[in-house]
Design a protein that fits this description.
- The structure is a single chain.
- The chain is mostly helical.
- Among the domains are: about 160 residues, P-loop containing nucleotide triphosphate hydrolases (Rossmann fold, 3-Layer(aba) Sandwich); about 90 residues, Helix Hairpins (Orthogonal Bundle), CATH 1.10.287; about 40 residues, no CATH class.
- The protein is built from 32 helices and six strands.
- α4 links the parallel β5 and β6.
- α29 runs antiparallel to α31.
- About 0% of the residues have low confidence.
C-alpha cells in the first residue's frame, strides 16, 4: 500500500490537514503531547488505496524531545513513502528549516503551504526560487478546505503516476552550504562511507547529523573509537551553530527580501495582560470561575434539567408502562425503576455539564489562550520540580485522568514521566463533577460554584506540594527542553466546537452503555439481595453491600461519613467516579418519579433518616476524599502500563493516605469553626505557629551548641 506521511512544525495545521484529507476528527491543539504517537488512516483517491500517517509535530529531525524522536525514527525506517511537508504561510522563515532537512534526507516530497489567514499571500519570489533550486513546486492550500484538499489529492495521484521524483537533488550540498562547509561534510562522508548502506540513509545527510552530534544517527552508525576520534577532530572546524547558520542563510535566499514572511505568531496586544506576571493567574482563575458558572448554574444546569426531565417523565414512564403490562413482579418492576431508569436519569442528567466543560476547554484552546496559560504556569512548575511539558498533562487531567496519564510518556526524563503521571489523578476530572454538583448544591446552594473552584484548586495545590516532595527525595528530574509556540488569537469555529461536543457525547454514551449502567445494576443487586441471594430490604442492613459497608465504615468515622452507604458509594467509585451519585440514590432508596432525580438525591443527603446523610462539615470531607482518593480502574491500568506496578501501587497508597489526612483535617476544622467561630481558630493557629517556630529555633540552637563550643556571641546563635 502506498504511504503518505504528513510532516511539519507544531501548529502549522498538520492535524487539520490530516482530518480533512481522511475525513477524521482527531484532536488538534497548540501544545506539546497532542500527537503523542503517529496516527494512521486508509483512504481512497481515484480508486487507489493510500495509507495516510500523521507524525508528531517537530521543529527539527535532531531529536530533543519524544515527538522528534518518533518522527525521525519513522522517516529513517520507512523509505518508500511520499512526504507531505506542511508549512504555515505566516511562519515560513522558521518552518523551512525542517523543509531543508527533509530535502537533504532525499525524501520524495510535496511542499504544502497552509494559508491560515485569508489576507496572507505567498511571495512569488519564494515560489520561483524553491522551484528553480530544489525542483519543488509549492502547493498553497487551506488545510480545512475540502476544495483545496481535492487539488492536493490530484497532486498525490500525479506524483505516483509519474514514477520519477521531480525534486532536484543534483549537487544539493552546494545548493545549501558554502565551499568550506561542503569540504568538511565530505570529509565526514569518508568516515561514514562503509556504514551508511545498512542505515538506508544517504551518507551526506548522515555526515551533517554527525557534525550536529545527533545521538539517534550516531547510535545507528555505531562508529569505532578511531572513527569517533576523527569525527571530533573535524568538528573543531565546523559545529552545529555553523550548520544552522547555513540553513537560515539558505532560507533568506529563498525568501528574498520580503520581511513579512518572517512574522511569527504570539505578538498581540492582549498578551500584555494574558502574560503579565501579576495578572496572568487572576485572569486564569476568573476564566475558570466563569466556566464553572456556565457549567453548573447557567447553560449546563438548564440543559441538564431538561434532559433529566425527559428521561424520567417520557422515557421512564413509557418503559415502566411496558414492564407493568408484561408482569406485576415487584422485583422486576423495582429493577427497571431503580437500577435502570433512575440510574440512567442520574447519569444522563450530567451529560450536558460534562460536555459543556469540554466545549469551554475547547474554546480556550482554539482561541489560543490555553497555550498562554501553559507558558504562564511553566515558571511555577519548574520551581516545584516539574517540566513545562507537565503543564499539558495536568491540564488534560481536568478532562480525563486516563488520557492525561498517557501524555506523560512524552517526557524525556524517566523520573519526570513517573512523577507527572502520578500527579495527574490529583486534577479533578470531569467524572467527579456530578459529585460536587449534587452534594454541594444540597449544602451550599448558589455558593457551590466557589466550593467547586476551591476543590479544583486544592487538587492543583496538593499536586504541586507532592511534586516538591518527590523532587527533594527519590524522584529528582533533570532539566528538560521546553519549546512553546503561541498561536494567534482567533475566534473558535462553531463546526469544530460542535464536532468536539459530538465526540464527547459519543464517548460518554459508550461509557454509560458498557460500564456505568452495568455498575448500577450490580449495586442494585448488592443492595437488594443478601449473601444467601434472598431479596431483602437493604435498609434493614441484611444486604450484601450493607454487610461489607458496615465492616469498612469504622475506618471513615473520623472523617465524618462513617456509614455503610457512603463507604459503598466510594467502593463503586473505583470503577467510575460518575456512579457515586447514582449509587447514593439507589442506597437512599430515591424512587423513580416526576421530580428531578438530582434534587431528590440532594435532599436525601440532608435527612438523618437516610442511609447516606451528611452535615456541611462531613459533606466537604466526603467531596475532598472523592477528589483525592484512588483513581478509577481505567486510570490505574494506564498507570501500570506507563510507569510500572511498583510506582502504581505507591501512587495509590499515597493518594489514599493524603485523601484521608486532608479530609480528616478539613472535617475537624470546619466542625470547629461551626461550633466556636473562625476567630478562635485563628488565635489557636497563631499560638501553634509560635510554639512550632520556638521549638525549631531551640532545636537548632542545641544542635549547633553540640557542634561548636564557642560563646553565644557567634552569629550562628
Amino acid at each position: 500500500m502506498k504511504e503518505i506521511v504528513l510532516v511539519g512544525n507544531p501548529n502549522t495545521g498538520k492535524t487539520t490537514l490530516f482530518n480533512t484529507l481522511t475525513s477524521s476528527n482527531e484532536h488538534t491543539g497548540n501544545w506539546h503531547g497532542v500527537t503523542v504517537d503517529s496516527k494512521c488512516k486508509k483512504i481512497q483517491i481515484e480508486k487507489e488505496e493510500f495509507s495516510v500517517i500523521d507524525l508528531p509535530g517537530v521543529y527539527s529531525l535532531t531529536p530533543l524531545s519524544f515527538e522528534e524522536k518518533v518522527t525521525s525514527e519513522y522517516l529513517y525506517n520507512n523509505k518508500e513513502k511520499l512526504v507531505i511537508n506542511i508549512v504555515d504561510i505566516n511562519n515560513l522563515y522558521r518552518n523551512l528549516y525542517l523543509t531543508i532537512e527533509l530535502f537533504l534526507l532525499k525524501l520524495p516530497m510535496i511542499l504544502v503551504i497552509n494559508k491560515t489567514s485569508k489576507d496572507a499571500n505567498v511571495p512569488k519570489k519564494f515560489i520561483q526560487n524553491i522551484e528553480q533550486k530544489y525542483g519543488i513546486k509549492p502547493l498553497v492550500v487551506d488545510a480545512s478546505s475540502k476544495a483545496d484538499i481535492k487539488n492536493l489529492q490530484k497532486n498525490i495521484v500525479d506524483y505516483y503516476k509519474n514514477t520519477k521524483n521531480n525534486n532536484n537533488y543534483d549537487n544539493f550540498l552546494s545548493k545549501v552550504y558554502d565551499g568550506r562547509v561542503v569540504r568538511v561534510i565530505k570529509e565526514v562522508c569518508d568516515v561514514v562511507e562503509k556504514k551508511h548502506i545498512r542505515t538506508n540513509i544517504c551518507k551526506e545527510y548522515l555526515a551533517i547529523k554527525c557534525i550536529e552530534n545527533d545521538c539517534l544517527v550516531l547510535d545507528r552508525l555505531k562508529l569505532t573509537n578511531e572513527e569517533l576520534s576523527k569525527l571530533y577532530s573535524i568538528q573543531k572546524e565546523i559545529n552545529v551553530e555553523t550548520i544552522a547558520g547555513e540553513y537560515y542563510a539558505q532560507i533568506n535566499l529563498l525568501l528574498g527580501s520580503d520581511k513579512k514572511t518572517k512574522r511569527v505568531y504570539g505578538k498581540s496586544r492582549l498578551d500584555k495582560y494574558a502574560l503579565n506576571r501579576f495578572l496572568c493567574l487572576p485572569i486564569f482563575f476568573a476564566v475558570l470561575i466563569l466556566i464553572f458558572y456556565l457549567t453548573f448554574f447557567s447553560v449546563g444546569a438548564t440543559l441538564s434539567s431538561g434532559l433529566c426531565s425527559f428521561i424520567e417523565n417520557k422515557f421512564g414512564v413509557w418503559v415502566l408502562t411496558c414492564v407493568k403490562g408484561v408482569t406485576n413482579n415487584i422485583i422486576v418492576i423495582d429493577f427497571f425503576s431503580n437500577a435502570i431508569i433512575s440510574g440512567l436519569g442520574t447519569i444522563f442528567s450530567f451529560l450536558p455539564q460534562v460536555v459543556m466543560l469540554y466545549v469551554c476547554l475547547g474554546v480556550l484552546e482554539d482561541s489560543g489562550y490555553l497555550s498562554r496559560v501553559a507558558f504562564s504556569l511553566d515558571d511555577i512548575f519548574s520551581r516545584v520540580g516539574l517540566s513545562g511539558k507537565g503543564v499539558y498533562t495536568l491540564l488534560m487531567g481536568f478532562g480525563c485522568s486516563t488520557s492525561a496519564c498517557l501524555t506523560a510518556r512524552t517526557m524525556e526524563n524517566k523520573n519526570s514521566k513517573i512523577k507527572t503521571a502520578m500527579l495527574s489523578p490529583y486534577m479533578s476530572c470531569s467524572a467527579k463533577l456530578p459529585i460536587y454538583a449534587v452534594i454541594g448544591s444540597a449544602f451550599f446552594g448558589a455558593s457551590n460554584v466557589f466550593v467547586i473552584f476551591l476543590l479544583y484548586l486544592l487538587g492543583v495545590v496538593i499536586a504541586l506540594m507532592l511534586s516538591v516532595f518527590y523532587e527533594k527525595t527519590f524522584l529528582r528530574s533533570e532539566k528538560q527542553s521546553f519549546i512553546m509556540e503561541f498561536p494567534p488569537y482567533r475566534l473558535p469555529k462553531l463546526k469544530r466546537l460542535f464536532s468536539l461536543a459530538l465526540v464527547n457525547i459519543k464517548q460518554f454514551l459508550i461509557r454509560v452503555g458498557s460500564l456505568l449502567i452495568s455498575v448500577n445494576v450490580i449495586i442494585w443487586i448488592l443492595t437488594k439481595f443478601s449473601f444467601g441471594l434472598r431479596y431483602v430490604d437493604y435498609v434493614g442492613g441484611k444486604s450484601i453491600v450493607a454487610v461489607v459497608g458496615r465492616f469498612l465504615a469504622p475506618i471513615f468515622v473520623p472523617l465524618g461519613f462513617g456509614n455503610w452507604g457512603a463507604v459503598s458509594a466510594l467502593l463503586a467509585g473505583l470503577v467510575a467516579k460518575e456512579v457515586i451519585v447514582s449509587t447514593i440514590g439507589i442506597i437512599n432508596g430515591v424512587p423513580f418519579g416526576a421530580e428531578n432525580l438530582k434534587v431528590k438525591i440532594a435532599k436525601s443527603l440532608t435527612l438523618a433518616s437516610s442511609v447516606v446523610f451528611f452535615t456541611p462539615a462531613s459533606a466537604i470531607s466526603f467531596m475532598v476524599f472523592c477528589l483525592l482518593y484512588s483513581p478509577c480502574f481505567a486510570t490505574i491500568g494506564v498507570l501500570k502500563r506507563e510507569i510500572g506496578i511498583k510506582w502504581t501501587i505507591i501512587s495509590i497508597v499515597v493518594q489514599f493516605a493524603i485523601a484521608y489526612i486532608v479530609s480528616l483535617v478539613l472535617y475537624n476544622t470546619v466542625g470547629f469553626i461551626m461550633n466556636n467561630g473562625i476567630l478562635l481558630l485563628i488565635v489557636i493557629m497563631i499560638i501553634v505557629i509560635i510554639i512550632t517556630y520556638s521549638l525549631y529555633k531551640m532545636t537548632k540552637l542545641l544542635i549547633n551548641k553540640q557542634k561548636c563550643k564557642g560563646c553565644f556571641g557567634c552569629k550562628r546563635y
